[in-house]
Amino acid sequence: MHSYKSAGGSAAEDLFIDLFCDTFGGEKGGYLYSQYPFYDIYQDSRFADFVLDNGGRRVAIEIDDAASHNKAIISKDKFHDDMLKQNSMVHLGWDVYSWAVWQLQNEPDRVKDELRVFLGNHPLFKEIQDYLPKQRGKSLDGSNLKLKEHQKAALEALKAMRDVHETIALLHHATGTGKTVTAVMDAKSLGGRVLFVAHTHELVIQASNTFQKLWKSAPVGLYVERTKEPEEHVVCASIQSVALNLDEFRDDEFDYLIIDEAHHASAETYQKVLAHFRPKFILGLTATPERSDDNDILEIFQNVAHKLDIKTAVEVGELVPIRCIRIHTNIDLTKVRINSFLYKSRELESKIFVPERNALIVATWLDYVKGRKTVVFCASVKHANEIATLFKENGINAIAVSGEMKGSERKEQLAKYENGDIQVLCACDLLNEGWDSPKTEVLFMARPTMSKVLYTQQLGRGMRTAEGKESLMVFDFVDNSGRYNMPYSVHRLFQLKDYRPGALAVASENQRVAEQNLYFRGEKPEAIIDYPVSATDYELVDIFNWQEEAEGMISQSEFVRRVSVQSETIDDYVRKGRIVPDLEVPMSEQRTYKYFREETVEKYAEEYGWTIISDDNRKDLFMDMCRTMDMSYSYKPVLIKAILQHADDKGRVKLADIVEYFRGFYESRRIRGLIVEKKRSIYAKGGYTDKDVERNILINPFKRFEDMQMLRHTKTLGIVEVDSAVWKRLTQEEKEELELICDKKLQEYFDRIVKNIRGMH
């Protein structure tokens, strides 16, 4: 861990999260996982400062102190150790980005610009799900059967798999034996929306024809090259088109995903698609491979496709049911400031590091679960040591474990816990990536956290099945908090309003119904007879979750991108109450996130006569703006001409090239004895610098295009970029039309100036 970190976090972490949330929105902060555990290539335990899952691969973010990579300041061993850590992340297939603390403090705009470039303007962040079991699945081999027999057998086998909640399969049929027909008939039997993906245009068209013949009631659309029909019930697509446009599809868009020629699934494009979508069932099609390849392909499918969710995993017996007891404390967190999903570390420490709360944790264990194998999740190394010391003072063999321990020592202590020599583990992190203990019967959630990812991963550490283990008992230590800084708990995570101490919170339907019948009779379930809780105790839980409320809403920054009006107008209307947000989330006295429902944006757009902008119409609006551009000066068409001349294939232009084009355009007019511009213009006066030109471009012609999200300026990189939804859709004919429009506008503009001058004489 870097030297600037404290046990419970750091000011640098807080500052990075602030910048991240400013860049992508407060609701996206919850996808950041801080202090993520992993192993380096020597199997030593490490922690990444932050980790994101973008749906295709893991992204690690490191915050370095001033000395981290300066060999003149730090020791040679420390320098090489830091390099080994980052190289190991790259070896794991992660993208790794680093920023220095001084950059966060002194160059926040540069950091935000770089975040947008490195992580995308519309990132598809995902929750990290290492704690869940793999999707269940199997391979079906029908290559040696006759056509009708093997199709029937395959369809029956697929149905049988779904009956036991299996979610993924690989269908082996020799070439020419009707794999696609089998897939279509299976998808038709389920009836939901289907995405069929193949790697060639010909395979996509063939599949489309098969769906149309065999499932006549389902509209079939293509998503390949320039043909985009994503709204149809069945979409037959090329892998390239889907992989390049994942941001246009919700992850739950389709119920059934078919991957043709599945032996290509190891390719990154396929892995991105498999990781993005969350269908109810995935079917891979392939001609019968060698048996050794069989396992490889299915393993790829299971690794990159989404894991089982907790409820389904409990339902099918992969994980044990969860029981819960809520222990209320008198600790007040209402004044602790938050950072989207984290409490400000020092403020949190001052509140929860009190003897009374620590004593309550130990007393609860002695009263309720003495003798049961327990992991207590603590807020820091210091907190874990304090709790472990209290347990020892009460005669309980407990140990504090953390990432600060040497790997060999951690391994030794964890082995003692597994063997029963240690009864209680006090942990301030997840111990190791993938670490869990099937014998653990009890979890104490003594660390308040607003991170859904962190809470769920802690929960997953105790949910593995073991012989004689009926359920996992979770103790949530419930501190007083406000609605917007409420920590996670079992009931908040699973949106459960009804609470009975010790009752099943997550279980199969049969288990829940059977237990509910006992409560109706005033009896306690056998599993909690030993716990000192009443069978009649009952309370309602406030499960309000602002992140989930905001997830389906539009942030104020997104509102600006959605309508044909400048950002200052939106700011002014919100300030004056002419626009009222549907949700306001106070982060601090100075910072509030504002969110709007889709229908609210539409209502205000209609009320104030604004056009709703989307990726579908952004290019057309751009063309219309150029055709009808009003011109106080000649700058807009000159800007468009500069971009058309210098843009790369992604629509990016160096600002320096635009400056050079502007200078060349106006100086050329001066040399030819033509009117350069109006007298007030810097170009008419002459004697201007490149900095003057740059400032003029960004203030005048650029601003309007920027507000409508058609152009974007990454100032620290000196890049102007045409929005991808505009640039990708512009045809060569339209680019040529833009050139003609700009030339015509310029001719009309300068003719008008000449006419006005003559009129004055």
How do you describe this structure in short?
By secondary structure, this protein is α/β, with parallel strands linked by helices.
Plain-language structure description:
Strand 23 (583-586) and strand 24 (592-596) form a beta hairpin. By secondary structure, the chain is of the alpha/beta class. It is built from 30 helices and 27 strands. The longest helix is centred in the last third of the chain and has 29 residues, at 732-760. The chain folds into 5 domains: 11-119, Endonuclease, Chain A (3-Layer(aba) Sandwich); 137-306, P-loop containing nucleotide triphosphate hydrolases (Rossmann fold, 3-Layer(aba) Sandwich); 318-542, Rossmann fold (3-Layer(aba) Sandwich); 552-608; 615-760. Mean pLDDT is 86; it is low at 1-8. The termini are far apart. 43% of the residues lie in helices and 17% in strands. The strands form 6 sheets. It has an 8-stranded mixed β-sheet with strand order 5-6-12-11-7-10-8-9, sandwiched between helices. Strands 15-16-14-17-18-13-20 form a 7-stranded mixed β-sheet. Residues 160-307 form the Helicase ATP-binding domain. Pfam families: Helicase_C, ResIII. InterPro entries: Helicase/UvrB_N, Helicase_ATP-bd, Helicase_C-like, Helicase_Restrict-Modif_Enz, P-loop_NTPase.
Q: What is the average of the pLDDT values?
A: 86
Whole-number count of domains: 5
How far the N terminus sits from the C terminus, by CA atoms, comes to 76 Å
The CATH architecture designation of the largest domain is 3-Layer(aba) Sandwich
Major beta-sheet overview: 8 strands, mixed
Low-confidence stretches: 1-8
Number of strands: 27
Give me the CATH fold name of the largest domain: Rossmann fold
Strand content: 15-25%
* Count of DSSP H/I helices: 30
Give Rg in angstroms. 30 Å
CATH superfamily of the largest domain: P-loop containing nucleotide triphosphate hydrolases
Global morphology: globular
Helix share, percent: 40-55%
The class by helix and strand makeup works out as alpha/beta
Query: Which CATH first-tier class of the largest domain would you pick?
Result: Alpha Beta
Strand order of the largest sheet: 5-6-12-11-7-10-8-9
